[in-house]
Structures are given as C-alpha cells and as structure tokens.
C-alpha cells in the first residue's frame, strides 16, 4: 500500500489537524420567516476576483440542505464572547435561534448580533469531499463589526487571541 492510499485512523487525523487553529463561524439563512443556521469552523477566502469563499458542512447536516435550497446565506464570524452561541449552533435539531439576537442582513440572511464580521453570499457550486461537502459561494456583501477579538478553535477546545 502506498502512502497516498494509506488507511488513517480518524481520531489521529482529528488530533493532528486540531493543531491548526481556526476561527468559528455560523452559517445562516432565512426560510420564509424561519431562521436557519449551523456552526462551521472550516471557512476560508478562495478568490478576490471574483470574490469567492468556501466552507465545508458535514454531509450529516440536516440544516445545510435547507440553506442550499435557499441559496442566499450569511457567514457570521464569531467573536470571542460568543462561545455559548457557537455551542447552540453546533448541535443538531432544536430551535438554535432561541434567545439569539439577530436582524436580517442586506441579503435577508440572519446577521447575528455581536459577530466579529459577516460575509453575505450566494451558493455558486458544491463538491463532494468524503464526509463533508465543499461549498464555494460568491460574496455579495461584507461587514466588519467592532469586537474584542475572534473565537478560536484549537485542539478540540475554544480560546481567544492574546494581544501583545
């Protein structure tokens, strides 16, 4: 068996990849008058021209198919004070928006109060990628908001950035 076809233990993969610190987002959309959302740490800028971003929902997500159908979404970059909010959006089912302050963004998708930044976008394309889907979305709006700093995820736990 060659290295490119080696069978790797998922726990080892998670532990090693956990050494890469990421920010945390909540992907949101509005279905009529019902807000939808899920937590997502795999988010990145893809291209400036055209303006594209990418995120990777789990194939087991029950929220992503609904957001995909709507096609218009917001990526809310969470602030360090939003750990509890992140936990609420990381679970499957239930009313994730219970007690959450939000307003419709410019594209109608929920803009979460207190988020560090918001990227509004429309779904451009998707690619199957193992147990996740790679979504590429075209940016239609950008908003940076005042905050103390980002919510970070590292080695399976949340943290924050210490300023010098």
From TrEMBL:
Pfam families hit by this protein: Flavin_Reduct (PF01613)
Alphabetized InterPro entries for the sequence: Flavin_Rdtase-like_dom, NADH-dep_flavin_reductase, Split_barrel_FMN-bd
EC primary class: oxidoreductase
A GO molecular-function annotation: riboflavin reductase (NADPH) activity
Domain Flavin reductase like as annotated: residue spans: 17-160
Taxonomy, superkingdom: Bacteria
SUPFAM superfamilies on file: FMN-binding split barrel
Alphabetical UniProt keywords: Oxidoreductase
EC nos: 1.5.1.36
Family: Belongs to the non-flavoprotein flavin reductase family.
The protein's name in its UniProt record: Oxidoreductase
Chain's gene name: hsaB_3
């Amino acid at each position: 068996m060659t290295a490119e076809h080696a069978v790797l233990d998922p726990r080892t993969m998670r532990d090693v990849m956990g050494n890469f610190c990421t920010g945390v987002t909540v992907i949101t959309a509005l279905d009529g008058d019902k807000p939808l959302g899920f937590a997502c740490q795999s988010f990145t800028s893809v291209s400036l021209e055209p303006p594209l971003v990418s995120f990777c929902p789990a194939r087991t997500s029950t929220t992503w198919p609904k957001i995909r159908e709507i096609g218009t979404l917001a990526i809310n970059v969470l602030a360090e004070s939003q750990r509890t909010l992140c936990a609420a959006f990381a679970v499957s089912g239930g009313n994730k928006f219970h007690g959450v302050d939000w307003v419709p963004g410019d594209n109608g998708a929920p803009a979460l109060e207190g988020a560090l930044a918001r990227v509004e976008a429309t779904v451009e394309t998707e690619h199957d990628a193992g147990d996740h889907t790679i979504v590429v979305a075209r940016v239609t709006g950008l908003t940076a908001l005042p905050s103390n700093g980002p919510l970070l995820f590292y080695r399976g736990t949340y943290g924050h950035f210490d300023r010098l």
